[in-house]
Amino acid sequence: MDAFETVIARIVEKGGMAVALGGMDTGKTTFVKMCAAVAMRVGKSVAILDTDVGQSTIGPPTTIGLRFLSSEADLEPESLARADAIYFVGDTTPQGHLLPQVVGTAKLAQQARESGAEIILVDTTGLIGGTLGQVLKFHKLEVLRPDIVVGFQRGGELEPILGIARRSLPVEVESLPVPESVRATNFDDRITNRQARLKEVFAPPVHRWKVKASVFLPQLPPDIDPASLDGMLVGMEDGKGVCIGIGILEYREESLRMISTVAEGAKALRLGSTRVTSEFLTTRVDLRELFVSD
Predict the structure, then answer these.
(1) Domains held by the chain: number
(2) Which residues is 216 bridged to in the sheet?
(3) What is the CATH number of the domain that holds 30?
(4) Which of 177, 212, 239 corresponds to the end of one domain?
(5) H-helix or E-strand containing 283?
(6) Partner of 1 at 20 to 30 A CA spacing, among 53, 119, 204, 276?
(7) Is the dihedral of CA 169, 115, 8, 20 positive or negative?
(8) Neighbour tally for 40: CB within 10 Å
(9) Is 153 found in the same domain as 248?
(10) 71 and 126 share a domain?
(11) 146 plus 248 within the same structural domain
(12) pLDDT tens-digit series, residues 160-183
């Protein structure tokens, strides 16, 4: 039995929560799916929490997604993408969004625990470098309180984070090499993947509603030009603390509207930091600049 199989067997036997850490293209998602498959074969109930807002496997990009699995068929990409719960972060990178990243992770992890899932597997972003990466990963681990952390690294690039976990938290920490079979995705691949996912999320039929400035978080400045919100991505809140989907704002005929495949139920809109084109390409928007008046 190799190191991967040994760690997977321990996770499945022990149960609880396991968190996969590593940079981009290190095999975290593959490992999580392997663990889930083994766990279901032995009759364990499994939930996957996907906190990678840029290359989401559960839910749309810009969100954290939670999926409860009932069979190995649920691990197929099309099925896995259908989240049971999401939390809107509003950007495809955690940079500048550490607070919603940590809050959303904690919120959905609690939902997974309350569901009674015997094994909760957490996938994470590839942001591990520098102070920002260390701060984000430490606070995620702090709120998650996992039973085991599995780090994937090519050299010692993950040691600062794994060292913090070993010294600061009551958690088992394992370090594994990146599998040779892992295929690197380039920048263009990531853009294409994200574009395809968003296109799927907004596949017809879509619904359109006029929206009021009073429904936004953060609150819109009274003198903001509504045309500047055209194409902005929003999270749809149900008034009970639950995100029920995402939408795109559009400004047409001097009116601000939202398009979404979610038919009804939105009570508030959480404004993201991402603008989406008609071809579902994304660009980052600094809300501080958007809200500045001339």
Answers:
(1) 2
(2) 269
(3) 3.40.50.300
(4) 177
(5) strand 282-284
(6) 119
(7) negative
(8) 20
(9) no
(10) yes
(11) no
(12) 999 999 999 999 999 999 988 888
DSSP label of 134: H
pTM value surpassing 0.70 = yes
Q: Write the pLDDT tens digit of every residue in 69-91.
A: 999 999 999 999 999 999 999 99
Tokens of 274: 């991402």
**Tally of residues, the chain:** 294
Which of 108, 6, 94 has its CA nearest to residue 55?
A: 94
Q: pLDDT of 40-53, one tens digit each? A: 999 999 999 999 99
Q: Which amino acid is at 83?
A: A
Does residue 36 sit in the same domain as residue 168? yes
Q: What is the mean pLDDT of the chain?
A: 94
Domain termination site, one of 177, 193, 214 = 177
Q: What is the mean pLDDT of residues 245-270?
A: 93
CA distance 25 to 139: 22
Residue 293: what pLDDT?
55
CA–CA dist 13, 38 (Å, integer): 10
Angle at 226 between CA 222 and CA 227, to 5 degrees: 150
Which residue intervals of 17-158 are DSSP H helices? 28-41, 77-80, 98-114, 130-144
Q: Are residues 116 and 212 in the same domain?
A: no
Residue 183 lies inside a defined structural domain of this protein: no
Give the separation between CA 59 and CA 204, rounded to whole angstroms. Answer: 17
Full domain range(s) for residue 90: 3-177
- 3-class secondary-structure state, position 44: coil
* Residue 33 DSSP SS3: helix
DSSP state of 223: T
Does residue 129 carry a pLDDT above 80?
yes
